[in-house]
């Protein structure tokens, strides 16, 4: 099986750093794109209340960061119970914790305001960039897909897992913009930083596995 290359981590770090810089300096073309997208999706959200309510359920319960982290915790317990994979279980939990710390540190550092509407359809706490929902979903789905692949899952089950992960990661990003609590670049940042955390974590895991007796 192919191994994670440090080049992949670097390739993800570059666009992540670039987007972070553009958001931090309030780059006008990016702000304009975010505002245009936000106005359009908010207009749709106000008009289609049934779909908006469905998105609220998905984002608050199915794809919520707490739900995602509990899923990781459950997988970690399963790894210990079924295979005595203490290192991998600990690695999984620590990676999720590191991702949460990185996310909150960037939010605090950038302190980007969320969209404000006279007729909001939802609300959220903390700063906007990056989207915690998008980042957490990317980290959890990325780590679990890698574990599934490492455990030899192939064929229809593998493609099914990829499909569920893809829908979850893209879907949660869509819900955050639709509900008017994030700019599109917040979601993009969540995806990029989440992928970066996964790439770095996989690199650590594989290097640790090489030196184990």
Automatic annotation (TrEMBL):
CDD domains: PAP2_like_2 (cd03392). InterPro entries: PAP2/HPO (IPR000326), PAP2/HPO_sf (IPR036938). Gene3D superfamilies: Phosphatidic acid phosphatase type 2/haloperoxidase (1.20.144.10). The chain crosses the membrane at residues 61-81, 88-106, 126-146, 158-181, 187-204. Residues 88-202 form the Phosphatidic acid phosphatase type 2/haloperoxidase domain. Keywords: Membrane, Transmembrane, Transmembrane helix. This is Phosphatase PAP2 family protein.
């Amino acid at each position: 099986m192919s191994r994670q290359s440090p080049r992949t981590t670097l390739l993800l770090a570059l666009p992540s750093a670039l987007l972070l810089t553009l958001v931090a300096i309030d780059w006008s073309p990016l702000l304009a794109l975010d505002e245009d997208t936000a106005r359009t999706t908010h207009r749709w959200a106000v008009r289609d209340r049934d779909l908006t309510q469905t998105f609220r359920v998905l984002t608050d319960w199915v794809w919520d960061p707490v739900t995602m982290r509990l899923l990781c915790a459950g997988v970690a317990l399963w790894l210990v119970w079924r295979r005595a994979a203490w290192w991998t279980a600990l690695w999984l939990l620590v990676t999720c914790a590191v991702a949460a710390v990185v996310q909150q540190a960037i939010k605090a550092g950038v302190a980007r305001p969320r969209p404000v509407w006279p007729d909001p359809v939802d609300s959220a706490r903390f700063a906007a960039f990056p989207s915690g929902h998008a980042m957490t979903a990317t980290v959890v789905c990325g780590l679990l897909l890698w574990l599934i692949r490492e455990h030899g899952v192939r064929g229809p089950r593998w493609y099914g897992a990829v499909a569920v992960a893809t829908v979850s990661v893209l879907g949660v990003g869509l819900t955050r913009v639709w509900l008017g609590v994030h700019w599109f670049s917040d979601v993009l940042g969540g995806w990029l930083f989440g992928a970066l955390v996964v790439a770095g974590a996989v690199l650590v895991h594989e290097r640790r596995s090489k030196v184990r007796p």
